[in-house]
Write a structure and sequence with these properties.
single chain, 6 strands, 12% strand
Length: 263
């Protein structure tokens, strides 16, 4: 009981201080990238290239949690330009329960929120795809009810990130060649149509280093994206100041979010 009262007292003090001082900038440790990984993020540097790592992630059978339809979202931090947080949620960003993000990241804005089947597997794939861009929070979260070092931060351009997420969503929800059976078993034929990180990064001027040749010579081949896709990308405002992506008009986190556990 004393512990609960103490925690509540600390939170009240924190809320009082937060109301009088500007929100702190998200501090990232760029000297130790990739120093922390969740279990659902493959240790891609054990392999010769990302194709091999992505293939291993894709081939793993879906768990009951992986099979759930959900939303992939991206959060932008005005105080830390160039750093984006990627995550997944079973609820839509319009749901008031999404507000919990605002408690951990005051002033942040939701700039992408789209639904996809097998949402957690898509998140795992995206984390592996952008492993080179992943960054770790240097200090624990200032939210006293959280206090963890969030790890889903990526130093990458919005246009590049949105393009990759959209291509993986299209691949996962493809009606022509479903990547997974109803039982969650991977369809090996689907690997031939999966997005290839190098071709997309080069097409939109991505800064990440290109993949080296695979030691096996195998892996998902390059997927082509028509030129019109990138002209539409520019028109959509992906490369401009943060706006909600796609047709899901979710708005700002400040007024619309509550209570989704931050991973």
């Amino acid at each position: 009981m004393d512990e609960i009262e103490d925690r509540e007292a600390k939170q009240r003090l924190f809320d009082l201080i937060s109301s009088k001082w500007p929100a702190p900038t998200i501090v990232l440790d760029f000297e130790t990238p990739n120093s922390t990984r969740k279990e659902n993020c493959h240790k891609a540097d054990l392999f010769w290239d990302k194709d091999e790592a992505l293939t291993l992630v894709m081939k793993k059978n879906l768990s009951s949690e992986d099979k759930k339809t959900g939303y992939i979202y991206v959060i932008y931090f005005p105080g830390s330009p160039g750093k984006l947080k990627v995550g997944t949620s079973e609820i839509h960003c319009k749901d008031a329960r999404f507000k919990n993000h605002q408690e951990c990241f005051p002033g942040c804005d939701l700039i992408y929120c789209k639904s996809v089947g097998n949402a957690r597997r898509v998140e795992q794939i995206i984390f592996t795809d952008f492993e080179d861009n992943r960054r770790l929070m240097k200090h624990p979260c200032s939210n006293l009810n959280c206090r963890q070092k969030h790890t889903e931060f990526f130093e990458v351009g919005k246009a590049e990130l949105f393009a990759r997420i959209d291509k993986w969503r299209e691949w996962m929800d493809s009606m022509d060649e479903r990547p997974y059976s109803k039982g969650g078993v991977f369809n090996i034929k689907a690997s031939r149509s999966s997005p290839h990180r190098k071709s997309v990064r080069e097409s939109i001027g991505g800064s990440s280093p290109p993949s080296t040749p695979s030691k096996t010579g195998k892996g998902p081949p390059s997927g082509s994206i028509p030129t019109s896709f990138f002209s539409e990308l520019e028109d959509s405002g992906y490369g401009s100041e943060p706006e909600m992506s796609g047709g899901d008009s979710c708005g700002s986190l400040t007024s619309q979010m509550e209570s989704v556990k931050i991973k």
